[in-house]
Amino acid sequence: MLSKYFQERFENMPRPEGLSAEAARQLVIDAYRLLISNRLSVAGVGVQGEGTIEDELDTLLRLADYLSAYTAISANLPQVQISPSAISSANFVAAQIFEFLAEYRAVGSDSLAEEQEAHDTERFPFNGFEFWTREGYLWINAIAHYLLARHDGNATTLTRRFRKLPKSVNDSNLSTWSAGSDIGYRLASTVVEIVVSFLGCDFLRVLRIVEDRDAVFGDIQATSNDFELIDLALISALFDIAEACAQMARALIILAEAEVRITRPWLETLRQAQRTSDLLNDAALKWIIDLLRRVMNDFVERGLLFIEFPDPSPTSDGWYRYLEHRARTHRALLWPAHLEAIGRGSINPQTSMVISMPTGSGKSFIAEMKIAAALQNTEDAWVLYVVPTNALVRQVTRDLEEALGPLVTTIRGFVTDREYTYLSLESLSPDELPTKPINYVAVMTPEKLRLAVSLWAEAFETCVLCVVDEAHLIGEPRRGSLLDLALAQLRTVNERVPLLLLSAMMSNPDDLAHWLEGIDFLDERRLTRQALMLGIPGDVQAAAQVRGRERLGDLLFGSVYRSDWEPSSGNIKWMILENVCVLKQEKDRRGGWGAYKFKPTDTARNCTESLVRTGLKSILFIPNIWAESSAKRLGDSLNLEGPDDPRLDVWERVLRRELGVDKPEIIERLRQGVCYHKGPMLTQEQVLAERYFATSEEVRLMVCTSTLSYGVNLPVEALVFAGTKRYDPEADTTVEITSKDFLNIAGRAGRPAFANQGLVQVLPNWLPFDWKPLRKQYQDLRKMYLAPSKKELKVTSGLCTVLDQISAVSDMDSVSDEVSAAITAWFGRAEDESLLRHTYAFFLRTQQVDAEETPDQYAHRITSAIAGWIRRQEEEFPLTSIAKEAFKRSGLPSRTCRHLYHEAGRILENLSPFKGSTTDGEGSFQYWLNEVVESVQSQDCDFFYQPRVKVGDKEVRENQLLERIREYEAEALHLWLSGAAREDLMASRFANGGGDYWSRHRASMFINRTTQQYAFALGSLLFFLECRWREQDSDARSWDRKPKDLGLEWEPHLAHLPLAVKWGVSSISALAWTYAGVRFRFAASALGDIHPSDDVGHDIEEQLRKVRGLLNEYRSNYPDQPQLTVEALRIQSERLGLGYDIDFLKDVADACCGTGL
Amino acid sequence: MAWWKRVDNGPTEFAYRLFRSSDETTIDRDDTLLRGLVELFVGAQLGLWRQINLLAQTRFPDRPVKTDEIQTVREFIQNHRDEFVRLFAEHIPHYLMLRCRSSDFEPCTQKRPHLSPYDHYADHLAVWKTPTDSYQLMTSETKASEQYPRDLVRKSPPDSERKGTMFDEFDEIEMGQHDLALKHQLLYDVDWSLLISTKEEVEKLVEAGFWKKDFVYHGCVVTSESRERPSIFKNYEEVAAKKPDSPERRWATVVPISKWKDWVDKITELALDFLSEREAEGHF
What we know:
The structure holds 2 protein chains of 2 kinds. By secondary structure, chain A is an alpha/beta fold. Helices cover 53% and strands 9% of the residues of chain A. Chain A has 45 helices and 20 strands. In chain A, the strands form 3 sheets. In chain A, strands 1, 9, 10, 11, 12, 13, 14, 15, 16, 17 and 20 form an 11-stranded mixed β-sheet that branches. A 7-stranded parallel β-sheet of chain A has the order 4-5-3-6-7-2-8, with helices on both faces. Chain A is globular. The relative contact order of chain B is 0.15. By secondary structure, chain B is α/β, with parallel strands linked by helices. In chain B, strand 4, helix 8 (230-240) and strand 5 form a beta-alpha-beta unit. Chain B contains 9 helices and 5 strands. A 5-stranded mixed β-sheet of chain B has the order 1-2-3-4-5, with helices on both faces. In chain B, helix 2 (31-59) crosses helix 3. The chains are: A alpha/beta, B alpha/beta.
C-alpha cells in the first residue's frame, strides 16, 4: 500500500525514451539507500555498499533536468495540453531527485552548520548568494517542485533543513554586486529568506521579514548615490521578488485581502521583476521568478481563503474567523486530498463520512474543518471526538485548542473525571447556565463514551457531530464491540448526528459509509518516502570475538521494495554495517557450548546508535522489558547533549516528591538526549517523554514498547524494530506483530513537515543460520509491508462475535465479560430493536447475501434472546426500575452489576441511613457517603465479584504459588484501601516474595493492573450505592431528578473517577484528595517548594519562596478555579523571571492534581 | 525592447561565409562591417543602460540624475578598454548569426549582450531548429586575447599533464560545469512558443536537450591568431566530440583577429566616435 502511490507517480510521469518506470524508481530508491550509507560512513560507522553513487549521479541529474524542464516548458506554453497528473508526477519525482542531490552535497557539512549557528544566530541563515549557487539551485528546486506537486509538508521539511546548512560561496566565482556592498548582501539575504519562507509556506514569517526588507531598502534609498546603476537594477528586481511573495502571503492569510485572488497583483509585480532581470540578463533571477510564478498560480487554486466551498457551505462570521485563523496557523493551503474531500461534500454538516487516508496525509484537518462547519451555525452545540487512548485525548485536545481557537468556547479532554460535569450542564437550571453559549468539543475514549452516553443520554441530544479517530478499531474483538455499541447508543439517542470516521488503514470505507448512509473517501497517497530495510546477520566465522562467548559481526541490510523480492535473488543491493551484529554462544542441554545465536535486541541497539549518530531522529521499538535499560545504555554510549531546560528540574521535583518516584530515570535520560516510553511508567513520565521527544531538537532517540502503537504524532526519521514481535499486555507475552500494527508503527517514520524520508530497519527474531526460516520471515514481512491484502485491512465489527455468542449461548453466566457488558446496554429496553439495528455489526449481517434468515428475523432473534435472558435474571434477582436504569447506565458486565448491587445493599443495611431531606443533613447522600468511605476503608470489603488472580497469560497452576499470590493480593488490597501509595505496595511482601516466577517487574505490572481494577470497582460500588440511595425514596430521588437537584455535585467525580485512575493516580489517597477538593497541593509544591537536596542559589530560593506564598494565597482565593490559579501562577512566574509557559504550568497542575486543564 | 530588430539585412552573405569558413576575408579587414557591428553593440548597450537608468530613477527618486547613458558607456570604454573589446568580441558571433538568417537555420532566440564582463553565465546562446527537426544550441565564449592562440583549442584528457592547455570555458563545458547556467538560459531565455506547439514537440525537445543532452554546442572564440589552420578544427572535433556525454556534443569555431592590440585601439576609437556622434545628435 505504501509504495503504490509512489509506483503510480513513476508510471504517470513523462519519461525519456529507454527509461522504464521501474528503472527510474529503482534509481531513486538506490540513490537514497546509498545516501544513507554515505551518511553512516561520514558518521564513522563502518559501512560497505554495493554500487557507488557517482555512477548514478549523472543519470539522476539528467532525469531531474529532464523533468523540471518538461514542467517548466509546458507551464509556459498554455496552448500545449498535457495531463495534470503527468505534470504533478514529474514535479514530484524531480523534487525527490533534487532533494537527494542537495542532501548528497550536504552530507558531512552538518557539523559545520553547528559552528556557524553558534556564532551567527541573530542574522538570517542565508548569505544572499543562494539564488546563484549550485546548492541554492538544488535546494530551492527541490522545495519548489514539492510545492508544485502539492506536497507542502515535504517542502516545509526541506526549508528547515536548508536553513540549517552552512552556505558556502566557494563553488562559484560570484560577484553579484559590481560595487562590493554589505548592504546589498543584507538585502539579498533578506530576500532569500523571504522567498525560502514563502516556499516553506510560512506566510506569517514572510510578512514579518518584509518589514526587515523595507528597513534595508530604506537604507539603500538613502544612500543610493553610492550604488552603481546596475546594482540599483538588481536591487529593484530583488525588491520586486520579495514584494510579490509578500503580496501573495498577505492574500493567503488575511481574509480582508483574499479578494485580490481575482486581480492577482503579484503577477504584475513578478512581471516587473522579470523585465528587470531581462535587462540584467540574469538567468538565475529569471529562474527564481519563473518558479515563483508557477508556485503562485498553483497556490491560487488551493489557498484556504481562496477556494469556493461547495453548497451548503458555512457562511457565518465564526466560520470565516476560523478560516483566517487556520490560514495564519500553517494551514493556508489545502492539500489535494482536502480539495477532493471538500469536493465530495466533507464539510457539509449534515452528512456522515468515512475517510481512509494514510498516516500524516491530513485526515485530522478534514475532521477539524467539519467540526468547524458543524459548530458555526448553532451557538449551543457540541462535538464529540472519540480517540482510542488517553495519550491521544491529550494530543487531540491540544491540537484542537490551537486549531479551533476563535470558534469554540472550549475543548474538553476527558482524561480525568471532572470533565463529565460539562456534559451534564444540560441538567443545570436555566439561571445557573453559563452566560456564554456552551459550544465545545469533548474528546474521549470509547470507554468513556460508552459510560457517558449511558449516564447522560440527554446531553447527547445537542451533539452535532461525532468524530471517531482510528475507526478501524471498531473491528477489534474487545474494544471494537464497545465502540460499535457506544456509537449505536449515541445514534439511538440522537439519530440525526452525523459521524465522521477516520482511519489510516481501512480497505472498505464504502461499507461503513453505507452503514452510516454517508460518503466514503479512500485516499492512498502517502506523502513521504519510506525505505524498509531488512537485516540479516553476516558470517559467524568472520565475526570478531569480543568478550566471553560473544561475537560482533557484520549485518547485511537489503531494501525491500519489490513484491518479487527474494533474499537469494540477484536484484538486491546490500548495505553492510560492520561490527553491529551481536551473536552469542549459549550452553546447550548437555552443558556444552551450542551454536551461535543472533541477538536482535543488542543488534538493534547498535543499529539505532549508528542511525542517531548520523543525525536521524530515531525510535527503537523493543518488544520486551529492556526498553528502559536499553535507553540507559544508549544514552551512555551516545553521549549526546540533552536539552538544557530548567523545566526538567521542576519535573524532577514533581516526579520525585509528589509522584513518589525515587529515582526519576526519565529525567536523567532526557538530560542525555534520550528517552523511553513503556507501559509500566507513570502517565506523567509518558507525557514527558512524548512531549520532549516531539518538541525538543536535542532529544534524538526514543526507546519504546508497543505502548506507542496508536496515534501519538511523533516526529521520527528512523525506526528500528528489534524483531517482529510485540508485547501484548493482555496476554503478558510477546506475539507476532500483525500487518496493521506493523503499518501503524512503521507509518510513524517520515512524517510530512518533519521528515521526507522514513527509514524502517527490521531485524529478524531469533534466527538459525539457514535460508529456509529466513526466507519465510522475508516473505511474511514483504506481505505485511508491501501488500497487505484488502482482506486484512477490511474492517468488520468486533460486536459481530459478541452477537454470535449471545445468540449461541443459553447460559449467560458462562459467557465472557464483553458479552455480559454488551447486554447491560439493553437493560430497560429489552424489547427495543433500535439499538441493535443501529450497530455496524447488524449492518454487516444485513449485507450477507447467503444468510439463512432475513435481517428482521435476525434482529428479532437476538433481541428476544437478550430480553429472555434479562427476564430470567429478573426472576432470579428482582430489580427495581431504578436498579435497571443503573444497570443500563453503568456499562459494566451485568453480573458485576448484580454483584455490586447486592453488595451495596449489604453495606446499606449496616448503616441504616436516614430518610428525609435529600440535599443536606443526615438524609443527604453526601453525609451518607462519608460514612461509607470510612467503612470501606476499615473493613475487608468484598466488592469484587471475582478478584482477578492471573499472572500474564500463564495460568498459575501450582496451588502453593496461587495461594501465596492470593495472600499477597489480600495484603496489598488492604494496604491500598488504607491509602498506601504504589511505592508502599512495591515495598511490601507482595512485590518481594515469590521467587523467580514473581519478579519485581511482574509485581509492578500486577499492582498497576489490579490497582486500576480496585479503583474501578470501588467507583462502581459507589455508583451502585447511589442507586440504592435513590431506591430509598424512589419518587423524590428517581433517575429523572438531575444530580444537581439532589445535591450530588460530586457525582461525576466519584462514580467515574476510577476510569481515570491510571498509573498516575495510583492510590486511594489520590481519590480522597480529589474528593476533599485538595487541588493545588502539588502545584504549589512543584513550583514553590525547595527540597533539602535541591542545589539552588539563594536568590532562586528566595524567589521560589515568594511564589509559594503567592500560591497559598491564590489557592485560598480560588479554591475551585484551577484555571485562575494557573493563570495567576503564570503571571507570578513571569514577574519573578522564571518564564514558564502556560502549557508547562498546566502540565504541572495536571500532573499534580488532575485539574484536567 | 527588441533592440536587436534594428539589425538590418545588410551583407549577410559575406558575414555568413566568413563565419562558416576560414576565408581569406576576415572581419577586421572589412571596416564597414566592423563599424556596423560596433555601432550595433554600443547602441544596444546604450539602450540597455537607458532602461536601467529609468528603472533606477523610478525606484530611487532621491538619486540625482547625474549620469546619462552615453557618459556611462564612455567611462566604461575609457577605463576598461580591454574589457570592453572583449565584451564586444563575445558578441561578434552573435551578431553574425543575426545577420545570417537563412532558410536553413531558424534561430529561435538570442541572448542579449552582457552588460558587464563579470557576468558569469554563458556569453551567448541561440537555439536553432534544423530542417531535420533536431535542435542546435550555440554558445559563444569569451576568449579574445593574444595570449591564447587558437591551436590551444583542443581537448586534453582530464588527467593529462597538458591539462589547462584548453580554453578554460571549453574545458568547463566539457566537464559539465556550465550545464546549470546553460540549462537556466535554455529554459528561461528561450521563447519556446516560437518553436513548439504540441505535446510531442515538448517531449522531443526535452528529451533531446535535457535527457540526452544532444544539443550541439557550438563554441565560438575570437582570437588574435591569424594563421590559417583549419585542420585544427578537425582535430578538435575528433578529440572533443567524443565522451563525456554524447558523440557529437560540441564543436568550436574560431574567429581569428590578426592583430589584437590594433584591433582594440580601432574598436575603442570607433565606439568613442560613435558615442560622440550620438551626443552631438542629442539622441540615442
